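Sequence design from tokenized structure. All designs in this work follow the same two-part layout: the structure record, then the generated sequence. An example of the structure record is given first.
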């Protein structure tokens, strides 16, 4: 938008007001507006002072301004001056037709010097005060203090034998990966679970996970080798990634052969404790109630993943290692039919098709799901609040993915996001001008290098989510 008169600028400030830092109010040196130019009589930068002119960038949204003029001042009156701290330009007072406003701009680019409007308001009202009460995600799913009965955190009579017995479904403990994709059976529409850490991308196909359910792997995170466990339950359509326990001699997990709400129960090979995959905690044994550290994973199609990370490594099975027919889904039409082969709580909750794939999140006593098919075919972004947490969900029904993050940063800034199309793995841009990828990492702009906080969330079938988390809200 081109600002052609003071009235347009006067309207623009309160409408585009967005969260940023608090500034000291002052009126002795108000800035002024003329057409699409903002005149700042005094701007303090470290121990220097300048007179600066800003010009609005046409058609920019969020609104951007360029520094188009600057003159160093000697012995200026700095009372009520604007301040640039290297990241934020704070303007305490702008006179627009006799009404005073304050405004905050964030540095978007140093060459050319460009700022993006981050927050604004009437100068007789205080800018928002940040009190850093960002809620942390729950470390567990389900009740905070579950009842312990006979050494179990879940009802013993709701644990069922899935049939194969312990390790009857063999975990993969020495995974092999390839970049020769043509030598594998992977198809563009096949679902994979993907991770991207320290510049390394890995994809774990459902076609292999259907037969093994657990992959005990090793990743390099921040330069350190770390054992991790990826688990996938074909019955509930859920995949989660956990850090293993560094103090354990054997950090691996196996398939117990037991189910709760038709969902995988793992066991750790160090203590033989049982772990509920979707509750993400130990439900019996020496590790009772322990909660693993979680790592962000993304579920999508092989075509989408490969387009985002063409240098990815793909989990493979050598022909000599297994006789499983990986090209055949051992669960047949389970992913699309209405049948639930094992008991599950709340199986009469028919608000969605039982096998609808949903991205679910838990925050305190609040639970909400975002059906993957409800996201736009290209890309949709939802700024939302679940419980006491401000979140952002990004997804695409066409590219078949959905992720959700805490959109409040450590400095207490709550960002507003918009979708970025045709730029995967970039999925969204915030009101400050930073672009963020599918793993919640800022890849450009003033927040470059910042990581959005992981939430207590993952994708599963609807029947499984409502079995564990009754009365979950559904995003329409």
């Amino acid at each position: 938008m081109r600002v052609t008169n003071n009235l347009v600028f006067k309207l623009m400030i309160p409408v585009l007001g967005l969260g940023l830092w608090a500034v000291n109010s002052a009126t002795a040196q108000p800035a002024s507006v003329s057409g699409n130019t903002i005149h700042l009589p005094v701007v303090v930068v470290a121990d220097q002072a300048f007179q600066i002119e800003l010009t609005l960038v046409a058609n920019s949204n969020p609104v951007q301004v360029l520094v188009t003029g600057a003159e160093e001042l000697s012995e200026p009156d700095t009372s009520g001056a604007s301040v640039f701290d290297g990241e934020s330009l704070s303007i305490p007072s702008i006179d627009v037709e006799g009404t005073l406003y304050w405004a905050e701009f964030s540095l978007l680019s140093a060459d050319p010097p460009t700022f993006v409007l981050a927050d604004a308001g009437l100068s007789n009202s205080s800018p928002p005060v940040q009190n850093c009460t960002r809620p942390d995600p729950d470390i567990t799913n389900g009740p905070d203090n579950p009842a312990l009965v006979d050494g179990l955190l879940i009802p013993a009579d709701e644990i069922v034998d899935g049939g194969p017995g312990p390790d009857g479904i063999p975990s993969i403990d020495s995974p092999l990966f390839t970049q020769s994709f043509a030598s594998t059976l992977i198809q563009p529409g096949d679902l994979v679970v993907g991770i991207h850490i320290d510049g390394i991308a890995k994809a774990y196909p459902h076609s292999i996970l259907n037969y093994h359910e657990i992959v005990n792997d090793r990743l390099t995170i921040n330069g350190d080798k770390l054992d991790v466990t990826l688990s996938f339950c074909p019955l509930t359509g859920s995949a989660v990634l956990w850090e293993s326990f560094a103090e354990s001699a054997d950090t691996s997990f196996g398939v117990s052969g037991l189910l709760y709400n038709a969902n995988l129960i793992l066991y750790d090979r160090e203590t033989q404790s049982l772990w509920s995959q979707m509750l993400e905690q130990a439900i019996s044994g020496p590790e009772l109630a322990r909660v693993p550290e979680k790592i962000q994973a993304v579920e999508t199609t092989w075509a989408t993943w490969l387009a985002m990370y063409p240098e990815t490594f793909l989990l493979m099975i050598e022909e000599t290692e297994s006789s499983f027919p990986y090209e055949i889904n051992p669960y047949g039409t389970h992913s699309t039919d209405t049948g639930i082969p094992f008991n599950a709580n709340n199986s009469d909750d028919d608000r969605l098709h039982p096998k609808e794939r949903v991205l679910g999140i838990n925050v305190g006593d609040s639970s909400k799901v975002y059906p993957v098919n409800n996201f736009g075919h290209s890309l949709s972004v939802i700024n939302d609040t679940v419980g006491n947490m401000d979140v952002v969900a990004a997804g695409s029904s066409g590219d078949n993915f959905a992720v959700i993050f805490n959109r409040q940063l450590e400095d207490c800034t709550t960002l507003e996001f918009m979708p970025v199309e045709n730029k995967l793995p970039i999925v969204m841009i915030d009101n400050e001008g930073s672009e963020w990828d599918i793993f919640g990492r800022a890849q450009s702009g003033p927040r470059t290098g910042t990581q959005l906080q992981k939430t207590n969330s993952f994708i599963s079938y609807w029947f499984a989510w409502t079995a564990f988390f009754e009365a979950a809200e559904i995003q329409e």
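Residues 336 and 390 are 33 Å apart (CA to CA). We note this feature because it recurs in several other targets discussed in the main text.
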